[in-house]
Write a structure and sequence with these properties.
By secondary structure, this protein is an alpha+beta fold. The protein is 40% helix and 34% strand. A 3-stranded antiparallel sheet has the order 1-2-3, covered by helices on one side.
């Protein structure tokens, strides 16, 4: 599962997949987070569908 949230004065993208360690990264711009979130979500989805 991927989520985007406001954390203090930055935006954070977090991806959690069963069986893997959670991955998170913070950015100053929300647009950067959305781009990363889309890429991470697609990567996770591709892993789950194999």
């Amino acid at each position: 599962m991927a989520t985007v949230r406001k954390l203090r004065s930055k935006w954070q993208a977090q991806v959690r997949v069963k069986g893997y360690k959670p991955q998170a990264k913070s950015f100053t711009l929300k647009s950067s987070v959305v781009c990363l979130w889309i890429r991470l979500w697609l990567s996770v989805w591709l892993l789950e569908t194999r």
